[in-house]
């Protein structure tokens, strides 16, 4: 026995270690390498199974590069899996994963990530992870997402306002949902270029006005190109937002040559202090881009607000092959279709607007009678958009 | 801060010894911090610390004193200090410190003590660990065999 141990043992004749509260003993075991932690199971009956629960008080699960040292992939996998199982439903504040899952561990890695994102910060760095789809739903506590998954095809985020960093360009991204229910904006991206390149190939996208601001904001939509986008859904909530993005300006500036279907959730109310700065832009120039393929537009929550009328006028002018303009009127609004007189007034005003496409059909629907026809691809979002 | 009267609290160990310390030092313990917050700071100056003897409490307060002033030191200075502090403790004191850090909610001290014990376990055979900590092997031969098989699977 080493001299150090002799000194330690000097005064101790009782087994007080075993008498320490389990919490402390588990804490001790959590500082041991797995091998030695397991070995304590052979000490006595009081230690038999303790090592199995040595992680429950951890909120940090850090499987970083140094964790991988001297371990075979199988060992790494078993260690992480054991820790994740012990973690169960407990809170995870930091989840740091640096792991090459190969083909064998794809499903398990996905499960770990699912478990981790239920609460907290997540940093996934899995080189060559063939992650195709990543869906965060109602993850209100996530502060930061760092993602390295170049084969990602589908990214859905519904939650608070995290910082989002893509560590490489996802070249195959075709399906994006970004909706923030928080009061803050998504934090501005550090790797803006990656994101712009990443969404270059997106075909179906749903954004809230904060998501729109996140992807295209600040630069006044100058570098905004979505050449393959076929369907766009925008959810505007102006009442909770000091500087709402101007959807008209966005549609005017963004290059959207493939857009076929456009869905816009209009805000339930407008901030009266808000100024419609870009009005002049919208009215100018006939040489602006046209929507060569846009066939369907659906505006939900149409209240004949002057901003909505502007948007409508703009779309009629630019959508040269428009077939259907669906206007969903809120059920409890004074413009309710049920109130014939006011409705007649509104429908006349809309019908006489100049239209670039001769076959445009205007469909009026009351929100209470809205059926399942003509729904956007992302129609089953698990939260109430407008309350 | 000359002339400013420091707020003091009195802690009473389980064997009845009183320790008068600065409030900011005592508050390294979440247990004490909560006790102070609950009962209006001015009145409640005597806080009994159950199950912690004066010898242990004096050592715990040495730790709290250092860490209450942690901002004045470089991080590695504190680390060095922690290392020396825990090296000085024999097994008896180590147990008492762990117990006290747990009952007084001093996370840093608990971690320090737990790491120290872990370092004593690490690298030893089960028999060596039992000898060091006086742990009695109470398994039957059948149980031992069963455990041995289980271990083999885990070592694989």
From TrEMBL, chain A:
SMART domains: FBOX (SM00256). InterPro entries: At1g61320/At1g61330-like, F-box-like_dom_sf, F-box_dom. This is F-box domain-containing protein. It holds the Pfam family F-box. It comes from Dioscorea zingiberensis. Residues 20-60 form the F-box domain. PANTHER family: FBD DOMAIN-CONTAINING PROTEIN, OS02G0105600 PROTEIN. It comes from the Eukaryota.
UniProtKB/TrEMBL annotation, chain B:
Keywords: Ubl conjugation pathway. Residues 7-68 form the SKP1 component POZ domain. Pathway: Protein modification; protein ubiquitination. GO terms for biological process: jasmonic acid mediated signaling pathway; protein ubiquitination; ubiquitin-dependent protein catabolic process. Residues 108-153 form the SKP1 component dimerisation domain. Coiled coil: none annotated. It holds the Pfam family Skp1. Signal peptide: none annotated. The keyword Magnesium does not apply. InterPro entries: SKP1, SKP1-like, SKP1-like_dim_sf, SKP1/BTB/POZ_sf, Skp1_comp_dimer, Skp1_comp_POZ. The keyword Zinc does not apply. Part of a SCF (SKP1-cullin-F-box) protein ligase complex. Involved in ubiquitination and subsequent proteasomal degradation of target proteins. Together with CUL1, RBX1 and a F-box protein, it forms a SCF E3 ubiquitin ligase complex. The functional specificity of this complex depends on the type of F-box protein. In the SCF complex, it serves as an adapter that links the F-box protein to CUL1. Belongs to the SKP1 family. PANTHER family: SKP1. This is SKP1-like protein. It comes from Dioscorea zingiberensis. The lineage of its organism: Eukaryota, Viridiplantae, Streptophyta, Embryophyta, Tracheophyta.
């Amino acid at each position: 026995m080493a001299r150090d141990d002799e000194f330690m043992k000097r005064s101790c004749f009782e087994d007080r270690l075993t008498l320490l509260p389990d919490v402390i003993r588990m804490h001790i075991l959590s500082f041991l390498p797995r091998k030695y932690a397991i070995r304590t199971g052979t000490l006595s009956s009081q230690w038999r199974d303790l090592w199995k629960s040595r992680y429950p008080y951890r909120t940090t699960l850090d499987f970083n590069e140094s964790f991988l040292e001297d371990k075979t992939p199988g060992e790494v996998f078993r260690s992480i899996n054991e820790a994740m199982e012990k973690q169960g439903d407990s809170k995870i504040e930091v989840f740091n994963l640096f792991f090459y899952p190969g083909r064998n561990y794809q499903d398990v890695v996905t499960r770990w990530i699912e478990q981790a994102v239920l609460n907290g910060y997540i940093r996934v760095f899995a080189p060559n992870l063939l992650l195709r789809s990543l869906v965060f739903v109602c993850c209100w506590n996530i502060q930061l997402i760092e993602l390295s998954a170049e084969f990602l095809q589908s990214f859905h985020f519904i939650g608070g306002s995290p910082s989002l960093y893509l560590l490489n360009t996802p070249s195959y991204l075709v399906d994006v949902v970004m909706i923030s229910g928080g009061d803050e904006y998504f934090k501005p991206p550090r790797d803006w270029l990656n994101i712009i390149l990443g969404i270059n190939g997106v075909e179906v996208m749903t954004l809230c006005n904060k998501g729109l601001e996140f992807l295209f904001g600040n630069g006044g939509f100058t570098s905004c190109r979505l050449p393959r986008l076929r369907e766009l859904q925008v959810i505007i909530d102006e009442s909770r937002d000091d500087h709402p993005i101007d959807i008209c300006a966005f549609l005017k500036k963004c290059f959207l040559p493939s857009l076929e279907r456009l869905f816009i959730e209009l805000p339930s109310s407008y901030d009266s202090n808000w100024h419609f700065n870009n009005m002049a832009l919208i009215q100018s120039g006939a040489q602006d881009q046209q929507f060569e393929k846009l066939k369907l537009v659906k505006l939900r929550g149409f209240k004949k607000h002057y901003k909505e009328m502007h948007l409508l006028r703009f779309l009629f002018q630019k959508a040269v092959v428009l077939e259907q303009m669906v206007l969903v009127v809120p059920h409890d609004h004074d413009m309710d279709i049920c109130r014939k007189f006011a409705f007649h007034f509104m429908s006349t005003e809309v019908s006489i607007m100049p239209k670039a496409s001769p076959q445009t059909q205007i469909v009026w629907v009351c929100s209470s009678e809205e059926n399942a026809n003509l729904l956007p691809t992302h129609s089953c979002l698990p939260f109430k958009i407008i309350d | 801060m000359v002339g400013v009267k420091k707020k003091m609290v009195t802690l009473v160990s389980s064997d009845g010894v009183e320790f008068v310390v600065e409030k900011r030092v005592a508050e390294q313990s979440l247990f004490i911090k909560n006790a102070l917050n609950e009962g209006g700071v001015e009145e409640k100056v005597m806080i009994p610390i159950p199950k912690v003897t004066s010898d242990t409490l004096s050592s715990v307060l040495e730790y709290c004193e250092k860490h209450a002033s942690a901002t004045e030191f470089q991080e590695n200075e504190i680390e060095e200090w922690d290392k020396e502090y825990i090296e000085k403790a024999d097994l008896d004191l180590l147990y008492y410190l762990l117990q006290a850090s747990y009952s007084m909610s001093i996370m840093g001290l608990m971690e320090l003590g737990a790491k120290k014990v872990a370092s004593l376990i690490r690298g030893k055979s089960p028999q060596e660990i039992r000898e060091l900590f006086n742990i009695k092997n109470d398994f039957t031969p059948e149980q031992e065999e069963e455990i041995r098989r289980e271990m083999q699977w885990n070592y694989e």
